[in-house]
Amino acid sequence: MKALVISGGGSKGAYAGGVAQYLIEEEGRDYDLFLGTSTGSLLVPHIAAGKIKKIKEVFTNVNQSNIFSVNPFVQRKKGDREFVSIDFINTLWQFIKMKRTFGESRALRRYIKKHFIEAEYDFIRKTKDDVIVTVSNLSKNRVEYKSIKDFSYEEFCDWVWISCNYIPFMSLVKKNNFEYADGGLGCVVPIREAILRGATEIDAIVLESENMEYDKVLGKNPFSLLINLFGHLLDQVERSDIIIGKLAARNKDVELNLYYTPSKLIENSLIFNKKLMTSWWQQGYEYAQEKCHQARSNDLRMD
After folding, report:
1. How far apart are CA 297 and CA 303, in angstroms?
2. Which residues contact 155 (CB under 8 A, 6 or more apart)?
3. Residue 33: CB partners within 8 Å, gap ≥ 6?
4. 219-228: long-range contacts at Cβ-Cβ below 8 A with a sequence spacing of 24 or more?
5. Bridge partner list, 173
6. Which of 84, 93, 125, 143 is the most exposed place for a label (fewest CB within 10 A)?
7. How far is residue 31's CA from residue 303's CA, in Å, rounded to a whole number?
8. CB of 14 within 8 A of CB of 261?
9. In the predicted model, is pLDDT for residue 60 greater than 80?
10. Of 229 and 104, which is predicted with more confidence?
């Protein structure tokens, strides 16, 4: 059973889209199982439904207003560098209303339902083994994996949305009497879960550079520093996921192909810029092309 796994990574998901497009359209990879976390959960249902060109158009055109119903960020530009800082007015209103998060992401829930239609949901259930999204159950302090086979269309759209809710900047969602948030808080790259569900060959797209060594620009106020802190913690979770995934693959004799970003794409993946994301999609496509050609050349030399 072949599986495609896409990690979390915000706007960097455009890069994963390009990698997946090349693997499917040019290499002829036919996946049975699809797993995603956070931004990966947005991509995998469309990829499973064979709607790659559609999700490319949708994903590379997303902006802050498509995501946030209450936006806690202000996007700024200094020279060639784009960054986000806290919108103190919106944040203050959240405190006054006694909300527990700095922002709300109800707009993203509507955006998901608008572009992932019920006919695509039905097609996936009939033709694919499974599509699974990762969520964090904060009430139970555990990671959960939600299968498209187990839920109605409306419920599955909820789980895709919940998987993307990067608290405390997005919505904390109460569902089935439990409180849920971004799956990346517990599992950024669900390689091991793919193996547990029977995958024998896995292509895992990791939206981070392989060595993860770069100098970060730390925030100058408590809110932007909090963004940096969460990024640091998620990097550690991602490292752990990859190590565990590699060990599980070795023990189960699973072929694991990892596709990293060749460099750090952006400091803050909560910036959604059409020009950048379109460029990343193409970079992902070209990187996968180069990696596959190199692998074939190495095989020929070994023969």
Report:
1. 10
2. none
3. 1, 2, 3, 4, 128, 129, 130, 131, 132, 194, 197, 198, 199
4. 221/85, 221/86, 223/85, 223/86, 223/91, 223/102, 224/84, 224/85, 224/86, 226/168, 227/84, 227/169, 227/268, 227/270
5. 180
6. 93
7. 28
8. no
9. yes
10. 104
